[in-house]
Amino acid sequence: MTNMSPDSLIQNVRWVDRSAVVEVAGEVNLAHSNAFQEDLANIVAEKPQRLVLDLAGVTYMDSSGIASLVKMLSRAKAIGASMHLVGMSDRVRSLFEITRLDHVFEIHATCDEALASS
């Protein structure tokens, strides 16, 4: 696994073929956004074909958390990778719906669905 920040929101990274499945937990907010972006950038640097972020453990997300995900989507696309979000709570999902980012990100209920998508 890539080296993560000491207070990383990333709990685990597992590889399924060329897909990185990243388990995220905690509050994705301004206090954690820089370290979160850095940790995700390190994973993207390993050039997965697909980046799957499992957000089931995310208890809160603010605009800086959303901005971090938008930046990572851009980085993933720059290397030809797709990025998928899974396991969102209703609260987090509503943020993506309000901001219309549910039309920008590929959102799935489970990791298996994301891994099976093209």
Task: Give a quick summary of the entry.
By secondary structure, this protein is of the alpha/beta class. It has four helices and five strands; from the N terminus they run ββαβαβαβα. This is STAS domain-containing protein.
Tell me the CATH topology.
Transcription Regulator spoIIAA
Order of secondary-structure elements: EEHEHEHEH
- Terminal residue distance: 25 Å
Give the total of domains. Answer: 1
Shape: globular
Q: Label the CATH architecture.
A: 2-Layer Sandwich
Share of residues in helices: 25-40%
Largest sheet: 5 strands, mixed
- CATH class membership: Alpha Beta
Mean pLDDT: 94
Whole-angstrom Rg? 13 Å
| Residue windows where pLDDT falls under 50 for at least 5 positions | none
Polypeptide structure, described:
- The structure is a single chain.
- This protein is 39% helix and 31% strand.
- With 118 residues, the protein is an alpha/beta fold.
- The protein has a single domain, classed as Transcription Regulator spoIIAA.
- The chain has a five-stranded mixed sheet with strand order 1-2-3-4-5.
- Helix 1 runs parallel beside helix 2.
- The chain is globular and about 30 Å long.
- The mean pLDDT is 94.
